[in-house]
Every structure is written in C-alpha cells, then in structure tokens.
Amino acid sequence: MAERQIEPLEKTAPLRQQVYETLEELIIFGLLTPGQHLVEAELARRLGVSRIPVREALQLLHSNGWVELRQRQGAFVHRPTLQEVDEVFSVRTLLEVESARIAASNATKESVRRLRRITKAGVKALAAGDEEALVRLNSEFHAQVTALAGNRVLAEMIGRLDKRIRWYFASVARSRGEASWREHEELVDALESADAPRAAKTMRMHAELTRDAFHRQRE
Q: pLDDT tens digits, residue range 187-211?
C-alpha cells in the first residue's frame, strides 16, 4: 500500500486574528484614539468582514488591555492612566538600562554601523513628518540594542512591553523629535567606546525623558 503523502498546512491566520492585528495597529498609531467608541457594524463594514470576527477580535483586544467593554454601551479604546504608563516605563527602564550596560561589552563595528543607519533613517523620517516610520524605527533601534546584550530572557521581557511602548511613544514621537534621535546617537557613541556606565546612564535618561514627554502631553 502506497504511503499517503502529507501536504504542508496553509498557515493563513484566522480572520479574527487578522482583524485583531489590524485594530491593534490602528490603536498603536492613534488612528483609533483612546476613549473612541468602536462600533462593530462600522468596523466590519470598513474592514470588509462580517461582525463575528470583529466581535471576537474586540474580545481579544479587551483581554490584552487595548479595549474596554462597557455593559450596554459597547467597546471603547482603552485610555491608559498615568499610573499604567509609569508602571510600564519603570519596568522598561530597568530592563533597557541593564540591556544597554551589557550591550556595551558586545558591540562590534558592524552592530554600531547598523545602529547608526537606523538613527539616520529616524532623522529622515522626522524631517518627512512620517510618524509611523518614527515609531517603527524607534522600536527597531531599541530591539537592536537588546539583541546586542545577548540575554534571551531579558529580550523576551522587553519584547512583551514593545507594543505598549510603541503606543505611548507614538503620541510623543514628534514632540520628542530631534532630542530623541540625538540621545540615540549618544547611546551608540557609548556602545562604540565600550563604556558600560555611560551607556546605562544614557539609556536611563532617554527612557525618563520619553516618560516625562508623555506626562506633559496629558496635562
């Protein structure tokens, strides 16, 4: 008897997951704003799907803290409190300061060139007013520093915070502007010179200034 051939499975994401990821990105980049009412029928119409995957996606977004479900009112984009933001930034600062400290011992010429390419791209995106690129490049820069640390557990912990940080940073990407990318350059200088204390100090300052900017825009 001939052996039956096993065909590879198609790895198409469920429709609810596609809707989830789309809405999550819209929230992160501020196209769906904190407090905004999310109407199932309207979202389904705009996304070209039925209401069922939208409803399922909203439930998942609620479970992950992106959406609030209010009885008899519906779904609303979550409005993070300053306490939430402070808690995320506090943990992120601890992890990324340590990441930068370790990375200073591991930086190579190629990794430094890669980081400088990202900072140059960030400055160009700022000049072009491309906020989505600014957020993406900021996240990429920090991910590269984390990767340089070479600590898998540290990278996983920082990775869990990435989307929240992108969300918070998106609202201040323009106001932080040149200062943010200048701080990135200062961090690269510290990494290039293998100056661990300076790298850690620069990363701490950078994270705290971003948190302060978020506070100011909420006042």
A: 999 999 999 999 999 999 999 999 9
Query: Do 115 and 68 share a structural domain?
Result: no
Specify whether 149 is located in the same domain as 46: no
Residue 166 is encoded by which pair of tokens?
Answer: 């992108």
Residues 70, 176, single domain; the answer is no
CATH at 98? 1.20.120.530
Tell me, letter by letter, the H, E, C secondary structure of 105-138: CCCCHHHHHHHHHHHHHHHHHHHHCCHHHHHHHH
What pTM was computed for the model? 0.85
Residue 58 in contact with residue 183, Cβ under 8 Å? no
Structural element, H or E, at residue 67: strand 67-70
Domain containing residue 36: 15-77
User: Is 67 in the same domain as 172?
Assistant: no
Amino acid residing at 179: A
Instruction: Pull the structure tokens for residue 153.
Output: 């557990």
Instruction: Kindly state whether residues 49 and 146 are assigned to the same domain.
Output: no
Last residue of a domain, one of 47, 77, 107: 77
Residue keyed to tokens 């590269």: 144
pLDDT tens string 126-168: 999 998 999 999 999 999 999 999 999 999 999 999 999 999 9
**76 Cβ partners below 8 Å, 6+ apart?**
35, 36, 37, 38, 67, 68, 70
